[in-house]
């Protein structure tokens, strides 16, 4: 190994002086400790402002610690490999192509006068985190350093710089994931957080056994691949910018700088302690969220579990279903929402007032997050829901109209064709389905209300879409219900049969991946919207969502607040629903009530309580 004194003498004086808190160091060469590894990129001065902006906008893979003063030359520098052999100090690039491996830059002293040195933080050690979590270090399948992969995830393009995100992977036993996340937080703060846990194809990586850099770390049965952003992203940036001349630290090599230049993102805080949760089995996918944010969502789940009708819904509750459903929705890009439970037979259409308001509230927040949202409803109620959406836009509840679809059904192929482009399961149109108070098919093939009245003649077979989705990788589903006869409640059907009145007959047999149980189903729709706000306001989850690339989502927070449910907006929605039944020329209108309870009372109080829990700072 290179002696510490030699390493310290060879640290970049000009670069170190510009790093935070480094100016006070008087005798670097006399230090014998307090060092951290870093990587180096050297670019023409003309590209320096653009590259600095690019690093600041993609801080996860490019944690910039500082840069040298432009007029300073670059001294000879010794490198520290992360293996037990000495490796070259620099790779030379010309117009995006690596044209040499150098041990010294002395012969380029003239060119260096017009170049700038950038230093990237490499202080977080995955191996140290694995050791702290009690996970034995795996041997590499070849020589060199642990493998890194170019992904299909683009870094945010800034000032003309663009390149793919590069990640490194370690296999982790499934039962050690939580322990590892705590260790990475303890050692690296936000900078230690992984950016993906699960199927590598979700990052555009295949196969794992062929990394773009370094050697493969073998996955064993029961392992979950965990990915972190790699500072080797900087090499891709150098290649992409096609500078006439550039230099960079080779893969597996770092330089040493004083420890007191640690990035603030590397410092752990109680608000950032992560939790990890499985949200999909096919493809395998985990998500992370801070413990305080998860606790707030659990409070929402407990709040909506109030049972105003004394139906016994407490027996149906599954822990963290709201959290898991919201995490899955947070990762979704295109969401299909369905609602509609015909119970008011003297009205045309006979929709109840529970369901559509909660569905629209969820769709409104999905819109605010920039996701695609659509609705599928019964053909007989198409005009009603079209009018509801039009009026919701006029009233400012929805930002823009959402597509309203119908489904005739008939076969498994029909359902697959509805869900997928050209019926191809590899090209789903939606990646999450949500049913909010939607009539669900019972085991005998009929649909029942709570009084055991068969309403099959009023219900289109939208259940088939949920059943088809179970066999299409990449589509998840959520059911929101308050009595066990709603679409998706097949997940809790045994509890429904045992504890809900008439449950042995009315229990829905079609299950969703997640079952959100609420005293009134609208409340479940509101709670999902609120949970999405909490997640996207959580720095831990928000960074994971964007793979630590691009700017944070804080800029959208004001529009998210405006998109949250409110008493005023939900009163408008209920009024729109009732008014459109009036326009159908029917007497004996349902009135401003939901599930037989006046809106101004328990419902208004619930909405306000949910919003209060959601918007309290973490």
What's the layout of helices and strands?
Blueprint: H1 4-9, H2 13-18, E1 35-44, H3 48-57, E2 64-67, E3 80-81, E4 90-94, E5 97-102, H4 109-112, E6 115-121, H5 126-132, E7 148-154, E8 164-173, H6 177-188, E9 196-198, E10 223-229, H7 233-241, E11 246-248, E12 253-258, E13 274-281, E14 284-290, H8 291-304, H9 321-331, E15 334-340, H10 356-368, E16 372-377, H11 382-394, E17 404-406, H12 412-419, E18 432-438, H13 463-469, E19 476-481, H14 493-499, H15 503-506, E20 514-517, H16 521-536, H17 539-545, H18 557-563, H19 567-582, E21 593-594, E22 597-598, H20 599-615
Parallel strand pairs: 15-16, 15-18, 16-17, 18-19, 19-20
Antiparallel strand pairs: 1-6, 1-11, 1-12, 2-6, 3-12, 4-5, 4-11, 7-8, 8-10, 9-10, 9-14, 13-14, 21-22
Offer a few descriptive terms.
single chain, 618 residues, alpha+beta, eight-stranded antiparallel β-sheet, six-stranded antiparallel β-sheet, elongated, disordered N terminus, GLUCM_C, Putative_hydro-lyase
Structure description:
The chain has 618 residues and is an alpha+beta fold. It is elongated, with a radius of gyration of 28 Å. The strands form four sheets. Strands 1, 2, 3, 4, 5, 6, 11 and 12 form an eight-stranded antiparallel β-sheet that branches. A hairpin with a 2-residue loop joins strand 4 (90-94) and strand 5.
In short:
With 618 residues, the chain is of the alpha+beta class.
Q: What is the strand tally?
A: 22
Poorly predicted segments:
1-32, 73-86, 583-590
Helix count, DSSP H or I runs of 4 or more residues:
20
Class computed from helices, strands and strand pairing? alpha+beta
Categorize the overall geometry.
elongated
Mean pLDDT: 87
Radius of gyration, whole Å: 28 Å
């Amino acid at each position: 190994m290179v002696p510490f004194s030699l390493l310290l003498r060879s640290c970049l004086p000009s670069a170190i002086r510009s790093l935070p808190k480094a100016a006070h160091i008087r005798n670097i060469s006399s230090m014998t400790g307090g060092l951290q590894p870093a990587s180096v990129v050297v670019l023409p001065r003309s590209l320096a402002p653009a590259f600095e902006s690019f690093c600041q906008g993609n801080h996860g893979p490019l944690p910039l610690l500082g840069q040298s003063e432009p007029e300073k030359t670059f001294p000879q520098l010794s490198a520290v490999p992360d293996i037990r052999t000495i490796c070259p100090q620099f790779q030379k690039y010309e117009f995006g192509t690596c044209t040499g491996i150098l041990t010294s830059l002395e012969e380029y002293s003239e060119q260096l006068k017009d170049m700038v040195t950038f230093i990237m933080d490499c202080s977080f050690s995955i191996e140290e985190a694995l050791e702290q979590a009690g996970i034995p270090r795996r041997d590499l399948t070849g020589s060199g350093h642990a493998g890194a992969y170019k992904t299909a995830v683009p870094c945010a393009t800034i000032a003309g710089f663009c390149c793919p995100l590069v990640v490194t992977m370690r296999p982790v036993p499934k039962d050690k994931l939580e322990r590892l996340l705590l260790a990475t937080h303890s050692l690296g703060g936000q900078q230690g957080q992984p950016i993906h846990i699960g199927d590598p194809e979700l990052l555009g990586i295949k196969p794992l056994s062929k990394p773009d850099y370094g050697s493969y770390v073998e996955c064993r049965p029961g392992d979950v691949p965990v990915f972190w952003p790699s500072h080797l992203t900087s090499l891709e940036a150098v290649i992409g910018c096609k500078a006439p001349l550039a230099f960079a630290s080779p893969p597996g090599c770092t330089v040493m700088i004083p420890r007191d230049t640690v990035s603030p993102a590397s410092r752990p805080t109680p608000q950032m302690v992560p939790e990890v949760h499985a949200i999909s089995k096919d493809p395998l996918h985990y998500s992370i969220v801070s413990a305080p944010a998860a606790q707030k969502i659990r409070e929402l789940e407990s709040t909506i579990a109030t049972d105003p009708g004394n139906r016994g819904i407490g027996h149906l509750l599954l822990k963290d279903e709201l959290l898991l459903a919201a995490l899955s929705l947070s990762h979704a890009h295109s969401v299909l929402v369905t609602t509609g439970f015909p119970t008011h037979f003297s009205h045309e259409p006979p929709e109840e007032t529970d369901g559509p308001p909660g569905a629209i509230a969820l769709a409104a927040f999905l819109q605010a997050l920039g996701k695609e949202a659509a609705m599928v409803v019964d053909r007989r109620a198409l005009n009603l829901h079209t009018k509801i959406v039009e009026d919701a836009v006029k009233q400012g509840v929805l930002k823009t109209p959402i597509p309203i679809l119908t489904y005739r059904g008939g076969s498994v192929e029909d359902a697959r064709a509805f869900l997928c482009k050209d019926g191809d399961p590899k090209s789903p149109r939606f990646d999450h389905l949500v049913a909010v108070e939607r009539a669900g098919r019972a085991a005998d093939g009929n649909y029942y209300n709570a009084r055991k009245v068969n309403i099959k003649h009023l219900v289109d077979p939208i259940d088939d879409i949920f059943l088809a989705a179970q066999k299409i990788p990449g589509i998840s589903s959520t059911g929101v219900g308050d009595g066990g006869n709603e679409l998706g409640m097949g997940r809790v059907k045994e509890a429904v049969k045992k504890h809900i009145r008439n449950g042995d007959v009315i229990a829905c047999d079609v299950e969703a991946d997640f079952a959100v149980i609420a005293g009134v189903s609208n409340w479940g729709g509101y709670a999902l919207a609120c949970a999405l706000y909490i997640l996207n306001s959580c720095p831990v989850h928000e960074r994971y969502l964007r793979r630590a690339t691009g700017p944070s989502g804080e800029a959208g927070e004001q529009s998210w607040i405006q998109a949250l449910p409110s008493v005023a907006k939900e009163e408008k929605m209920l009024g729109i629903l009732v008014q459109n039944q009036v326009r159908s020329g029917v007497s004996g209108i349902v009135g401003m009530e939901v599930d037989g309870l006046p809106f101004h009372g328990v419902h208004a109080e619930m909405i306000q309580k949910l919003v209060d829990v959601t918007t309290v700072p973490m």
